[in-house]
Amino acid sequence: MNLKELAAKLGLSPTTVSRALNGYPEVNEATRERVIAAARRHNYRPNARAIRLATGRALAVGHVIPLNHRSEMMNPIFADFITGSGETYMRNGYDMILSIVPDEAEEQTYRDLMSRGSVDGVIVHAPKVNDPRIRALKDMGLPFVVHGRSTGAELDYNWVDVNNRRAFQRAAEFLLDLGHRRIALVNGNEVMDFAVRRRAGLTDALAARGLVPDLSLMFATQEMSETHGHRAAEEGLSRAEPATAFLCASMLQGMGVRRAIEGRGLKMGRDVSVIIFDDDLSYLRNGEDVPIFTATRSSVKEAGRLAAEMLLNVISQPDMAPQHRMLEAELILGQSTGPVPA
Amino acid sequence: MNLKELAAKLGLSPTTVSRALNGYPEVNEATRERVIAAARRHNYRPNARAIRLATGRALAVGHVIPLNHRSEMMNPIFADFITGSGETYMRNGYDMILSIVPDEAEEQTYRDLMSRGSVDGVIVHAPKVNDPRIRALKDMGLPFVVHGRSTGAELDYNWVDVNNRRAFQRAAEFLLDLGHRRIALVNGNEVMDFAVRRRAGLTDALAARGLVPDLSLMFATQEMSETHGHRAAEEGLSRAEPATAFLCASMLQGMGVRRAIEGRGLKMGRDVSVIIFDDDLSYLRNGEDVPIFTATRSSVKEAGRLAAEMLLNVISQPDMAPQHRMLEAELILGQSTGPVPA
DNA sequence: CCTATGTCCGTAAACGATTTAGAAATGGAT
DNA sequence: ATCCATTTCTAAATCGTTTACGGACATAGG
């Protein structure tokens, strides 16, 4: 059942039917109701392909997920992010198109999505320091929102980010207040922008107390996984002067650190303190009612929701000034931290 | 730059240009090359919206992800699954459209995708026992492939599944050979079809040795998470006759079980044995070179690849007989199993 | 020489909606 | 009765491709 057929059944022109269904004012309310009733009765759904061609809009946004083909690993936060953004798209009649591409092909993917008219805008995931995609997207004129930021990008652009620096700074201050001086960092890969900011948060806090970071306790694991966290903690605990506290960039790393601690017969929270960054992932809850890990918490799902809303705004008002949204992580107290052992 | 403009520049009709670019035979090879060169030079990309309307194909497949709105949790295997399927779509020029919907709205979502012409087919995720979606999709005539199966569906349909029953049967036999008799099951929610099959695998193995399952050791957790695994193991270990082995449906549950074991000062693999189902997720590796957990392993990413290929085949040949692909899990030996303590 | 067969290319009509321009009907005001 | 504005609707163009059909030309066969 298409528009023409429906119009024929009603004895109206396709134009009027279209206008009636889309809420245009120049149609009698009586006919509008008649049209809507008939549309419902005949189960009419406008053909999305035709709408897209006629309006010149794709009614779709793209999420391009870079796949690090060395580790073949997709960022685990991604599932939660799209859970948040997906609902916004649905409510506004937009489709979400996912492209998973090796990271070196990402820029070309944006170009294709754009020039073939498959999307009206994109979300940029996992920005690196000095990420070239930002300049490229600006040049192409494709609306975009970055989840995170890119240090060194001289242009202004739309982003939604959590205050990674402040989060790790506060976490480090908390550990310092507990007397910890040998604080190990179990970071993500430091080509990623968020990792650099988290590291800066730690060094800021140390510097504020006149301490210099011990580079032998700064780990940046290739993957933010349990095993990599475990390995880093093994090293940090076997130093001549072992770490008394760990600051981890992810829950999984934190679990690996805990395993290393307990593997040595030590107790987390008593002998060694651990703070993690908790993205509040649905499938990796930090405890149920009472949190296991002390953590800086910020919901990545919420970030997804905000980024999607921002992108739809940017699409509908293309010459709007760049939008920014900074989220603050909350520091929540769990059972994994305590005063430094005497 | 569109087709008409490109044709004008070449002094040809749009028809000829279209045919040249799409490899139709009725065009001189010399002109074809001229056209291809010009298309490349002017950076011409055919408008996807127009192609879709003209051909009547969506050139897109849908993945409808049910969101259990009680737990607000997306299945964590999903990210790996689409990593596998995504590449197949890309190679064949298909888009992947993701819809994340509360599970009660899922059927309506399929209907919308279909009648508005947004997709040529869908992948059905997370089938339940007696899943009504299968009948609904058959009735609608929308091509689909199920990741998993649905016990009780009287119709035949396309599916890609792992042999869950055999996997858990073999795992249980292995534990029985090691002398274990009190084997706890830490299963997923048993409205899910795969969970029922895994349970059947265990009870099969027990029955083959004349044993009856101890219902007080059969857990079906609402979520397959670390905390739920931990809680189940706490119960299983505090029985009058505690479990000596655990059969877990996921890696995360296994990690929770390990935590419960170690929290009691016991050692996994010596005091208590654990076998997990390992979906070979990219962000949850079971060890690096040598596996931590003894596991039944089957790559969900591979399943995604196979399901995508099957779906594209079904789309291109709609009256093909239903296709099935059964994957066998391999039983890999880790450090989490050993003979039952005396 | 005429016709049949191929080869190569163009014309025009789809595809199914939106949207522009304009016509017909209606209602008041003069 | 005339004029103008407003309301309501229609016809036709448009979006950028694909594709059914047909024409021109060359070559081969009779």
Write structural notes for this entry.
Two copies of one chain form a homodimer. With 342 residues, the first copy, chain A, is of the alpha/beta class. The first copy, chain A, folds into three domains: 3-46, 434 Repressor (Amino-terminal Domain), CATH 1.10.260; 60-161 and 301-327, Rossmann fold (3-Layer(aba) Sandwich); 164-299, Response regulator (Rossmann fold). Chain A is 42% helix and 17% strand. Chain A contains twelve helices and twelve strands. Chain A has helices spanning 3-10, 14-21, 29-41, 48-55, 78-91, 106-115, 132-140, 164-177, 193-208, 226-237, 251-263, 300-316; strands spanning 60-67, 95-102, 121-124, 144-147, 159-162, 183-187, 218-220, 245-248, 273-278, 294-297, 324-327, 330-332. In chain A, the strands form two sheets. A six-stranded parallel β-sheet of chain A has the order 2-1-3-4-5-11, with helices on both faces. In chain A, α5 (78-91) links the parallel β1 (60-67) and β2 (95-102). In chain A, α5 packs across α12 (300-316), α8 (164-177) runs parallel beside α9 (193-208) and α10 (226-237) packs across α11. The longest helix of chain A has 17 residues, at 300-316. The radius of gyration of chain A is 25 Å and the shape is elongated. The first copy, chain A, starts with a helix and ends in a 10-residue tail after the last strand. Chains A and B meet through α4, α5, β2 and α11 of A and α4, α5, β2 and α11 of B. β2 (95-102) of chain A pairs antiparallel with β2 (95-102) of chain B. The first copy, chain A, binds a DNA duplex (30 and 30 nucleotides) through α2 and α4.
